[in-house]
């Protein structure tokens, strides 16, 4: 095979990394080099763009160490049997690229994943060496996210956590049966065992930091995971319950969802078409409801239809409200925070503003118009000082009044 230069490797391995969605950089500890010491920062404005909870855009160099792999997972474009162009970085090349890109103000951090070469331990050693060299040899203080390998020696994963801000392990598929069928070389037990070890190390690190000022940190931005949506027969209800269980058992910062994308020379066991991207979007919305709106997994799953799939034309919160008309309307001047969070169209910030404002005056529709994005969406579900939706509440079919108008499909200029 012809030798590739770094630029050619970057073209191949940056493109190969695009299937990994779990690269947000929120939650890390604040570090900077404004005092003239060290290099890099986890702060400020920022070839992958991730967004922190406060809206800051953080640019990450997102690459694979290599797209070669000894595993043959059916859904993976980098699987052993896939006919794709292969490339591999050395640890030094990744370090030099990261430093070079940072100095040009292209990036503020690194997201590094990899296929498995030689063995899980060997691959993990190379990834840890990248993070170690950045931190110790170059005093790099920017963000580092390492995608770890569940089969690797726990000591290597522990070393990764000492140098990286966030580490993650993909659960790959929502169900054990799907993983066994599409990725027979991977084991749910090994994946969850590694995630349990990471959880314990994170908790131990936080406890040590409370006791000793000089205690080493372990993955201060926590751990995350990713599930592929649409490669197996798992329903949205299955995925919602799986995600809820992962949050509860492993104290994850995020569960990411990646819509399955058909790949060249695909296995016959895979679907021929990718699922609608809107399905991935609805799952992220359902995830948001569990994390920030106090919905239980069974409540979110109740928004699904008889087949277990969330509706694509309306969001899960509105779908749940339409199925639970007896819970509405909600009086914005009296209802507790938990009830207001269930109103379609009211976000967490709007609810907080309502709770503050109603201490000083009885809220009217004009007040709510200033506090919310869409007054028309919330009107059927609320009672205000000058508003009671008698006619709307009595309608047998409310969905046409509150569902968004479907946008026409964009036609292709060169379609046959």
Give me the secondary-structure topology.
Blueprint: H1 6-16, E1 48-51, E2 57-64, H2 91-103, E3 109-113, H3 120-137, E4 143-147, H4 154-163, E5 166-168, H5 176-182, H6 188-211, E6 223-229, H7 236-250, E7 254-259, H8 277-292, H9 297-301, H10 316-323, E8 330-331, H11 337-340, H12 348-357, H13 365-371, H14 375-378, E9 382-383, H15 390-394, H16 399-402
Parallel strand pairs: 2-3, 3-4, 4-5, 5-6, 6-7, 8-9
Antiparallel strand pairs: 1-2
Helix pairs in contact: 2-3, 3-4, 4-6, 7-8
Look at the structure and give the mean pLDDT: 86
In the sheet with the most strands, the strands line up as 1-2-3-4-5-6-7
Which structural class should the secondary elements be placed in? Answer: alpha/beta
Give the domain tally.
Answer: 2
Supply the number of helical segments.
16
Order of helices and strands, N to C? HEEHEHEHEHHEHEHHHEHHHHEHH
How many individual β-strands? 9
**pLDDT < 50 runs, ≥5 residues:** 42-46, 412-416
Shape: globular
Radius of gyration: 24 Å
Largest sheet: 7 strands, mixed
What is the beta-strand fraction? 5-15%
Share of helix, binned = 25-40%
């Amino acid at each position: 095979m012809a030798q590739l230069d770094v630029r050619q490797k970057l073209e191949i391995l940056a493109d190969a990394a695009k299937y990994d969605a779990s690269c947000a950089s929120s939650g890390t500890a604040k570090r900077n080099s404004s005092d003239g010491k060290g290099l890099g920062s986890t702060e400020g404005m920022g070839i992958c763009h991730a967004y922190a909870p406060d809206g800051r855009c953080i640019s990450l160099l997102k690459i694979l160490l290599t797209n070669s792999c000894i595993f043959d997972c059916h859904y993976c474009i980098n699987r052993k049997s896939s006919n794709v162009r292969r490339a591999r970085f050395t640890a030094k090349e990744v370090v030099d690229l990261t430093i070079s890109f940072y100095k040009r103000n292209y990036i503020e951090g690194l997201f590094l994943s990899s296929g498995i070469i030689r063995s899980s331990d060997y691959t993990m050693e190379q990834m840890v060496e990248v993070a170690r060299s950045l931190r110790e040899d170059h005093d790099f203080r920017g963000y580092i996210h390492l995608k770890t390998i569940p089969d690797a020696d726990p000591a290597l994963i522990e070393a990764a956590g000492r140098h990286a801000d966030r580490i993650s392990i993909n659960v790959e598929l929502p169900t054990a049966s799907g993983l066994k069928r599409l990725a027979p070389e991977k084991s749910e037990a090994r994946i969850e065992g590694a995630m349990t070890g990471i959880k314990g190390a994170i908790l131990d690190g936080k406890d040590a930091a409370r006791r000793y000022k000089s205690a080493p940190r372990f993955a201060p931005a926590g751990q995350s995971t990713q599930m592929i949506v649409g490669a197996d027969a798992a329903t949205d209800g299955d995925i919602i319950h799986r995600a809820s269980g992962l949050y509860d058992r492993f104290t994850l910062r995020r569960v990411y969802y990646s819509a399955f994308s058909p790949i060249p020379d695909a296995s016959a066991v895979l679907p021929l078409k990718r699922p609608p991207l809107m399905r991935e979007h609805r799952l992220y919305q359902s995830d948001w409801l569990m994390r920030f709106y106090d919905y239980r997994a069974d409540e979110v799953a109740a928004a699904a239809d008889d087949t277990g799939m969330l509706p694509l034309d309306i969001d899960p919160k509105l779908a749940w409200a339409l199925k639970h008309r007896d819970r509405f309307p909600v009086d914005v001047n009296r209802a507790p925070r938990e009830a207001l969070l269930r109103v379609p169209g009211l976000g967490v910030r709007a609810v907080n503003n309502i709770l503050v404002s109603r201490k000083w005056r009885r809220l009217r529709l004009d007040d709510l118009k200033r506090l919310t994005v869409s007054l028309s969406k919330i009107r059927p579900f609320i009672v205000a000082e000058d508003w009671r939706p008698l006619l709307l509440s009595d309608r047998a079919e409310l969905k046409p009044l509150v569902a968004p108008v479907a946008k026409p499909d964009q036609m292709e200029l060169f379609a046959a």
